[in-house]
Amino acid sequence: MILGVCFLLLRSRKAALLALAVAVWNIVQFWPALVDLPESAPAQAGAAPLKVLAFNLWYANTDPGATLAYLAHSDADVIGLVEATPQLKTPWRR
User: Among 9, 42, 65, 92, which lies 20 to 30 A Cα-Cα from 79?
Assistant: First the structure.
């Protein structure tokens, strides 16, 4: 919105219109998350929350066995790995 006003001050109507369109598009995309609409996503009573684990493997990890054991026993539903390279697969294979 502020960018649109700046473009209007510079008398660039096309750029101001584009900035306004982008701002409206972003508001439309995030509106469901900004407004609490209970009917859009009903919560299940008694459902366990999703456990997500983000883990950095670190390219110089000297004990991949301990790392693998930690990940296997974490009881996470989703595991996201950072710095996972093809070279790290080799010592972890059994």
Answer: 42
Residues 26 and 56 in one domain: no
Contacts of 75 (CB under 8 A, 6+ apart): 51
Q: What pTM, to 2 d.p., does this model score?
A: 0.44
* Domains: count for the chain: 2
* Amino acid (1-letter code) at residue 90: T
Helix (H) or strand (E) holding 19: helix 13-34
First to last CA, the chain: 56
For 24-74, the pLDDT digits (tens) are 888 888 887 777 666 545 556 677 788 999 988 877 777 878 888 898 899
Strand partners, 81: 55
Tell whether 30 and 57 lie within a shared domain. Answer: no
